[in-house]
TrEMBL record:
Name of the molecule in the record: GH26 domain-containing protein
Biological process, per Gene Ontology: substituted mannan metabolic process
Ranges of residues in domain GH26: 113-450
Organism: Mixia osmundae (strain CBS 9802 / IAM 14324 / JCM 22182 / KY 12970)
Region (Disordered): 1-44, 492-516
Comp. bias (Polar residues): 1-12, 503-513
Length: 565
C-alpha cells in the first residue's frame, strides 16, 4: 500500500491505558524495576522438551540431584538418571499411561518416590505458563497499541492528530529509504525520517520506522551501521519505544525489492543481527502484504531460484495456489513482531463506495477466500501470529472512500463499517488475542492500483461527521487501548528535517506545546527474566520461586532420610 515516497539496554515506556488528553491533570507515575536477564549459557539443558529451556531452570532438572547408594550394576546416582530419562521420554511422547520404571535391585524409599512424583508434577504444571513469553514492547493483558500514519509532508503532525482524536496515540509511523537519500534543502525530501515530530508531541509515544530499500543489492554494511545508530539514538538518547518495519510488502512489484525472495531473506538475515548488535531494544517487524488476490496479477519472476522459492506447491506455476508468505519469511530467530497490510478499497477490489461486510478483517488476517470462507493455502494468523514470543499487528490499515466516484455510500458509512468491524471491535481482538497493535493510515492519497487514478480518503479525523462518530464509538472501547502518556520533550529538538548538527536548526523544546509530566520507562522484555513484564508473568515467576524454594528443602531432607534408611 504505502511506498517509499509516502513517507546500553535502556529503559522503555509502557504507554498509559486510557490516557485521555487533559493537560491540566496531574498523574502519578510508577518507576519500573530494572530486570536482569538470564543468559542462555546459565541454563542446564537436558533431554526434555524445548519448553523447559526458556531462561528458567525447570524443576525437572533438579531430579538429577537425587542420588542414592547404588548397586554394583548401577552406580551411585544411576537410579535418578534412569527416572529422569523415563520422565523425559513420557513427556516427549505424551504417554503418561505407563508407569515409570527403573532397574535398581534396591527397593526405593516411598518418601523418595513421592518426591520424584511431586517434582514431575510441578515441572509439568510450570512448563506451559513460562512458555508464554511476551514479545518486545507487547502490552500486557488485553491491551492493544493504537498507532497512526500521518502525512507530515502536508503538515499533519502528532500533536494535531492527538488534539483531533482526543487521545494520545501510542505509536507514530515515519519512513525513509536505505541507502539514505541526501537531504534536499529546497524540497525537504530525503534525509532521515522526521522523528522530531514525535519528540514535539509532548508524549512518550513510540517510533514506528519503516525503511524501504532502494534495491536489495544497494544496501551496504555501512548503511546498516548508520541505521543501527539512528535507532540507538531513538531508544537511548530520546528514550523511545522503537519498531523497525524493514522492507514491507515484499511480495509486490510496486516495491523495487519485491518478488525477490532469495535475496530478500539473505539480506534480512544480515540486517537483523547488524541492527540488534547496535540497537538491541529495537523491535524488528516482518510485515507482508495481505494474501488476498495473491499474486496480484503479477507475472512469474525470471530468476530460477526465486521462481523455485515462490512455487511452493511444486506444480511449476506461480499462482494463487502458492503460499504468499513463507518464501519471504526469514525464520523465527530473525523476527520480533509479525505485521500485515490490510485495507478495504471496495468489494472485490473495485473502486466503489460500498461498505465492507462484517468479518472482513478477520478474513484478511486468516487469509480466507472471500467467496467460500475457506483458508486459501495458509492461515496467516495461525501460522505466524501464534508463534512463541511473537506479537502481531496491522502494520498499516484503513478503509478507502473514493472521492471522485459518483454514487454509493457516504464516507461515514464506509469508514464506520471499517472501525466497527476492525479497529474498535473487541470481539475481533478477543478472537485474535495476539493482535497487539493497529496502525491507522491517516492519509488522503491518489492511487492507481485499480488500473485508473483514484483519489482515496482514508482519514478518520478529517471530516467532521466521521470524526464525531469515531470519537463516540471509540469512547466505548477506549479502555482496550494503551495510550501514550504525557512527557516533557528533550531540551533541544530539531525543527526541520535537516541534520541536527547544522547551526540554527534547534529550539528549546518547552517553547511550544502543553505542559507535560515526565514518565519513567519500564525495562524491556526481549529476553527471559525471572521477573516478568506482565502481571500474569510475575504470578508464574513468583509461583516458580516459591515452589523451587520448597522443593530444595524437600530434596535436602529426602536425600538425608534416604541415606539414613
Amino acid at each position: 500500500m504505502a511506498s517509499a515516497s509516502t513517507s546500553a539496554q535502556s529503559r522503555i515506556s509502557k504507554p498509559r491505558r486510557h490516557s485521555r488528553i487533559d493537560p491540566t491533570s496531574q498523574r502519578q507515575t510508577r518507576k519500573g524495576t530494572r530486570q536482569a536477564a538470564l543468559e542462555p549459557s546459565d541454563i542446564t539443558q537436558s533431554a526434555l522438551p524445548s519448553e523447559c529451556h526458556l531462561g528458567l531452570v525447570c524443576p525437572c532438572h533438579l531430579i538429577s540431584d537425587l542420588e542414592h547408594e547404588g548397586t554394583p550394576d548401577e552406580p551411585r546416582g544411576g537410579q535418578a538418571k534412569n527416572v529422569r530419562r523415563a520422565v523425559a521420554a513420557s513427556i516427549v511422547s505424551g504417554d503418561d499411561s505407563q508407569p515409570i520404571r527403573h532397574h535398581s535391585s534396591r527397593k526405593a524409599s516411598p518418601l523418595l518416590s513421592m518426591t520424584w512424583l511431586l517434582l514431575v508434577g510441578l515441572c509439568l504444571a510450570l512448563i506451559k505458563p513460562v512458555a508464554a513469553q511476551s514479545a518486545l514492547y507487547e502490552p500486557a493483558g488485553e491491551g492493544v497499541l493504537f498507532g497512526a500514519w500521518l502525512n507530515t509532508s502536508s503538515g499533519d503532525v502528532p500533536t494535531a492528530f492527538n488534539a483531533r482524536l482526543g487521545y494520545n496515540a501510542s505509536v507514530f509511523q515515519i519512513a525513509q529509504q536505505i541507502p539514505m537519500l541526501a537531504y534536499n534543502y529546497t524540497t525537504g525530501a530525503g534525509g532521515p525520517a522526521p522523528e522530531y515530530h514525535i519528540e514535539q508531541s509532548f508524549t512518550d509515544a513510540g517510533v514506528f520506522l519503516t525503511v524501504y530499500p532502494s534495491t536489495l543489492a544497494s544496501v551496504t554494511a555501512q548503511d546498516l551501521t548508520d541505521l543501527g545508530n539512528q535507532l540507538l539514538n531513538y531508544t537511548v538518547t530520546y528514550n523511545r519505544t522503537c519498531f523497525l518495519r524493514w522492507a514491507p510488502e515484499m511480495q509486490g512489484l510496486w516495491n523495487p525489492y519485491g518478488q525477490q525472495p532469495t535475496e530478500y531473506v539473505a539480506l534480512w538475515k544480515i540486517m537483523y543481527p547488524a541492527i540488534k548488535a547496535i540497537a538491541p531494544n529495537t523491535a524488528i517487524v516482518w510485515a507482508p502484504n495481505t494474501g488476498q488476490s495473491y499474486p496480484y496479477g503479477q507475472t512469474a519472476p525470471t530468476n530460477a531460484a526465486d521462481l523455485a522459492a515462490l512455487d511452493t506447491n511444486g506444480d511449476g506455476q506461480y499462482d494463487n495456489a502458492d503460499d504468499p508468505f513463507s518464501p519471504y519469511y526469514p525464520g523465527d530467530a530473525y523476527v520480533d513482531w509479525i505485521g500485515m497490510s490490510v485495507y478495504y478499497k471496495g468489494p472485490n477490489h473495485q473502486n466503489l463506495n460500498v461498505p465492507q461486510t462484517g468479518g472482513f478483517c478477520s478474513s484478511e488476517i486468516h487469509n480466507l477466500d472471500p467467496d467460500t470462507g475457506v483458508v486459501n493455502v495458509v492461515d496467516f494468523y495461525e501460522t505466524y501470529c501464534t508463534k512463541a514470543g511473537k506479537a502481531c499487528m496491522l502494520a498499516e490499515s484503513g478503509s478507502a472512500y473514493h472521492e471522485t466516484v459518483a454514487g454509493g455510500s457516504s464516507q461515514l458509512a464506509m469508514q464506520q463499517a471499517w472501525w466497527q468491524d476492525c479497529m474498535l471491535n473487541t470481539t475481533f481482538y478477543d478472537a485474535n488475542p495476539r493482535l497487539k497493535l493497529i496502525m491507522q493510515f491517516e492519509y488522503e492519497k491518489l492511487e492507481t492500483d485499480g488500473g485508473t487514478a483514484d483519489l482515496r480518503d482514508y482519514r478518520l479525523t478529517n471530516a467532521t461527521d466521521v470524526l464525531a462518530a469515531f470519537q463516540q464509538d471509540l469512547g466505548t472501547t477506549a479502555d482496550r487501548f494503551v495510550w501514550a502518556g504525557f512527557r516533557q520533550p528533550p531540551a533541544a529538538i530539531p525543527t526541520t528535517g535537516r541534520p541536527t548538527d547544522l547551526p540554527g536548526q534547534t529550539q528549546p523544546a518547552t517553547s511550544t506545546g502543553p505542559p507535560a509530566l515526565a514518565t519513567v520507562r519500564n525495562t524491556q522484555t526481549s529476553f527471559p527474566s525471572l521477573f516478568f513484564e506482565s502481571s500474569a508473568g510475575r504470578s508464574y515467576a513468583l509461583a516458580y520461586a516459591a515452589a523451587s524454594a520448597s522443593m530444595m528443602a524437600v530434596i535436602g531432607a529426602t536425600a538425608f532420610m534416604s541415606k539414613a534408611l
